[in-house]
Amino acid sequence: MEPSAPDRACWKENGTFGDRSCPELAALAHCRNCPVYSAAGRRLLDRKLPDGYREEWTDRLATRKDAGKVETVSIIVFRLGEELLALKTIFFQEAAEEAVPHSIPLRTGEVFKGIVNVNGELILCVSVAALLGITAEEDGSANRKVYPRLVVVSRDGQRFAFPADEVIGVHRFLLADLQELPATVSRSIRALTAGILPWQERTVGLLEEEKFFAALSRSLAP
Amino acid sequence: MLLLQFQAGKDRYGVDVSRVIEVIQMVVFRPLPHADPAVAGLFNYRGTMVPVIDLTVLLEGSVSRPLFSTRVILVDYPGRNGERHILGLLAERVTETVFCTEGDLRPAGMAVDGAPYLGDLLVHAGEMIQRVAIEQLLPSSLQESLFPSALEV
Known about the structure:
The complex is a heterodimer of chains A (222) and B (153). Chain A has helices at residues 10-13, 25-28, 35-43, 53-62, 128-132, 187-192, 209-218, and strands spanning 72-80, 83-88, 92-96, 112-118, 121-126, 149-155, 158-164, 166-174, 193-199, 202-207. Chain A has 222 residues and is an alpha+beta fold. Chain B has one domain (2-152): CATH 2.40.50.180. Chain B has helices at residues 55-59, 140-146, 149-152, and strands at residues 2-8, 11-16, 20-25, 39-45, 48-54, 71-78, 84-91, 97-99, 105-106, 118-124, 127-132. Chain A binds chain B through residues 1-3, 42, 44-49, 53-55, 57-58, 61-65, and chain B through 12, 24-28, 43-47, 66-69, 93, 95-96, 98, 124-125, 127.
């Protein structure tokens, strides 16, 4: 597709970046949806190659790619109160709708909250916030559009559900980015965390799955 | 199927992307003296010597100009005995792709003896895009000289 590119920058005159009087704009909403605009963009590629460009790419393509050398890990990031936490995605099963757990007399405690129904299956419900000593959501964040979820995790056949204030999503990290926890972090978090990862100017605490699931199992004991 | 478009002269052509390994920048080619004029030369692609055919020479008669939009399309080229080779196709205006189905392609109606690789045509946005069949791109004499291992087996 190659409509004739305009001789002048019409997008600056009567388009999105101009007075918006272009008749096409009503249907296209933005110049970037317009074939004239993209044709002009493509024309930028018809420039001559600068000196040394071909030589540089010749050298670059002659070297082998070191693919697969970088070790990455996929994690699911969720938020409890003000803390961002993460677990390796392989242990994550689903983010379900919030549900009120059905408490079990004499068993339900601070961490173990009872049993919840997730898609017809009964799953043990725990409070990770209580386990880690994280205080609950403050009302000040009510203006943010967040959806509390029930996170279902599983390891070696053990399944747990726990409420999270927000499930942020799956991200991929370089293992090399995993850093030691600062000494100021509370002991209960420190004991269950593998390290912290930088994420969008904040840090995410990566839960150490073996200790985390062991701690959840322990919470079931009366 | 997705066709990767290129241009020779004023005409648009396309290759099926299922054959394409990578589209790379125009690099410096080591010329092959006395080779077919359509052979732009050889270059080192991550340790493998890859021959490059200039499609502009093949289809239009002039050499591809050194522009940003001039690219080398690296394709998986089937050899005679089933072995795979990497072949570079130097072409101009490699900036667009187009989706189509086999049913959208219209037969050209005539076959050109010297160019068996020219295939069906797609009419898209008022333009005709002709599909280039990679496996028929090289005449057998050129194929033998570029990939001589095919002869030894």
